[in-house]
Amino acid sequence: MLGILASIIDGVLVGLVYGLAAMGLTLIWGVMDVINLTHGAMIVAGMFGLFLLVNALGVSAYVTLPPVLIGGFFVGALLYWVAIHRMVGRPPLMSLLSTFAVNLMLIGIGTAVWGTALFNVEVSVPGITIGRYTFPGAHIVAAVLAAVIAAALYLFLHHTRLGKAVRAVANNREAAELVGIPTTRVLAVTVGCGVAIAGVSGVLIGTLFPFTILSGDGYQLKSFVVTVLGGFGNPVGALLGGVALGLLEGAVTPFVPVSWTLVIEFVLFVLVLIAFPGGLFASRRGAM
Amino acid sequence: MPLLRLMRRPFFWIIAVAIAVFAISPVIGNDVELRESLLLDALYITLASNLNLMLGYAGYINFGSIVFFGLGGYVCVWLVNAYHWTLGPSLFVAGICVSVLALIFGLGILRLRGAFFALSTIGIVEAVQAFAENFSPWGGSSGIYLSSEIFKPFGGPAHALWVIYFIMVGVMGLSLYLSYFIKTSKFGLGLLAIGQNEDAAAILGVPTPLYKAMVYSASAFLPAIAGGLYFFKSAFIQPSDAFDLSLSTEALVVAMLGGQGTVTGVALGAYLYEELRGYLLTTATFSNFQLVISGALLLLIVLFFPSGLMGFIYSRFPRTQKVLE
């Protein structure tokens, strides 16, 4: 029984990181109704950013967060101009296809350069031992950092001029344009932020688990599940959704082979969508 | 009799001629190399035109069309290997099984609209792959090998390859006729209405959930048979080949390249794409970048030519709209 409890607590720690990853997806989704199918590739890009920087410079894993954040922002802005700008306001089918196409290119380049070998970044943070169970230090640090970054995003959206502009555009793009907000630039910034968050969550996940160039698909699916649990376009809900998913994973892992967890999560995704089409913690539209 | 009505249209015979060209051209001169390249063409046309039933008619993106192909392959190879069935019945049963499965899945996930459906098709790939990797009668992640005995009833492997080729061409022909038949039927009109505005279609009396599930199931049958043939031919199946994402991606690129919602366009797109790919694969540098090239191609089409090759032909030569579907 105590083992299950420990597994659940660990699940919540990891779930916070999943929640952060999903925030990147749901931010873009909420603001411009575009589902970013490069999300998984961007998470993997964060992981490889971590791996390369740690190996090249020999720095601590957590030092790579700021450069990945900044790099991710510029990559995201570029992604907006290449694949999303012409798709905003068109049928969702088209933006799905265009971001999917970019995803293919990124995965293709990654596979050509690194193959599909397993990469691993060693992080030595002392764990906390309670009774017979030890919670890995890396998990605790990642969860804390995820919470801090999520809080920073919340503060950005609610207490800065640019963040308020992002929310205004999410609520009503035309009205925002009318009061003088440069909406196109705001959209580019939003995609930049979304991708940057995907990247840093990739760094954090990379400190927890080994990864390959193809790991992104699984984490992208998790992000969708979290988004559905947390309500679309609702970053705070996404964090809650992440914790919920983590709880579930923690409760399920002791009983089910690892390869089935994704299947269970996917079934959950479909069931929740059928039962609660707006997501489990659905908020009013635009209440970001 | 709707079939007789269709036979009076020229397009019916254009398809027939295309099938005849496929069937006859490698036989002349016993050209094995041409046969292999045309086999891939036929496979792409089969996958893309069945994907097009969802994408072009009903406006639903299926990122996981490879699931039908892979599952069909598994069911067929498994029946041949474990129960010593002959090829014909195995293929047929594989098609029926996958189709029924798709109908059951479809009634569930097609309650999700548009983008959510697309997302759940990504999930289905993961789910089915996980199933195949854990299902011990299918050999788990190491897969199933067929012995060379299976080619005996055909009079040796060389002869069997020809039989497989002709069946594949037949499957391709059926796919084209299925696309054409659905497009000209009341069912097809209902699907096109769903593609344009699902709410309006539902209000006007189109049974949208049923139609979507039916087209999802119909689009599973022939790819499953193609999968069965493909893996019977290679005498080996494993999860990573059966559910290779790049094949369903290529089907998507092909359908978009040719022009979603058209029958001719998808066939043309498949032919062009396969030619391009054959050319790129021979140059060693490019073979690593196959995904990159499909991705770049898809992006360019989506950004600049969303109606594809047929959109271009229709706008240039408006009279072709009356003949080419």
Rg from Cα of chain A: 18 Å
Q: What is the strand arrangement across the widest sheet of chain B?
A: 1-2
Order of strands across the main sheet of chain A: 1-2
State the helical fraction of chain A: over 70%
Number of domains of chain B: 1
Helix content of chain B: over 70%
Q: What is the beta-strand fraction of chain A?
A: under 5%
How does the SSE layout of this entry go?
The complex is a heterodimer of chains A (288) and B (325).
Chain A: H1 2-32, H2 39-57, H3 65-84, H4 92-114, E1 128-130, E2 133-135, H5 137-159, H6 161-171, H7 173-178, H8 183-208, H9 216-230, H10 235-252, H11 258-275
Antiparallel strand pairs in A: 1-2
Helix pairs in contact in A: 1-5, 1-8, 1-9, 1-10, 2-8, 2-9, 3-8, 5-6, 5-8, 6-8, 9-10, 9-11
Chain B: H1 2-7, H2 10-24, H3 32-58, H4 66-83, H5 87-109, H6 114-134, E1 144-145, H7 157-184, H8 186-196, H9 198-203, H10 208-234, E2 236-237, H11 239-242, H12 245-258, H13 263-282, H14 284-287, H15 290-304, H16 308-316, H17 320-323
Antiparallel strand pairs in B: 1-2
Describe this structure in words.
The complex is a heterodimer of chains A (288) and B (325). With 288 residues, chain A is mostly helical. Chain A is 73% helix and 2% strand. Chain A contains eleven helices and two strands; from the N terminus they run H-H-H-H-E-E-H-H-H-H-H-H-H. Chain A has helices spanning 2-32, 39-57, 65-84, 92-114, 137-159, 161-171, 173-178, 183-208, 216-230, 235-252, 258-275; strands at residues 128-130, 133-135. Chain A has a two-stranded antiparallel sheet with strand order 1-2. In chain A, strand 1 and strand 2 (133-135) form a beta hairpin. The radius of gyration of chain A is 18 Å and the shape is globular. The N and C termini of chain A lie far apart (39 Å). Chain B is mainly alpha-helical and 325 residues long. Chain B is built from 17 helices and two strands. Chain B has helices at residues 2-7, 10-24, 32-58, 66-83, 87-109, 114-134, 157-184, 186-196, 198-203, 208-234, 239-242, 245-258, 263-282, 284-287, 290-304, 308-316, 320-323; strands at residues 144-145, 236-237. Chain B has a two-stranded antiparallel sheet. In chain B, helix 12 packs across helix 13. The model of chain B has no long low-confidence stretch (mean pLDDT 85). The interface between A and B is large, with 40 and 40 residues.
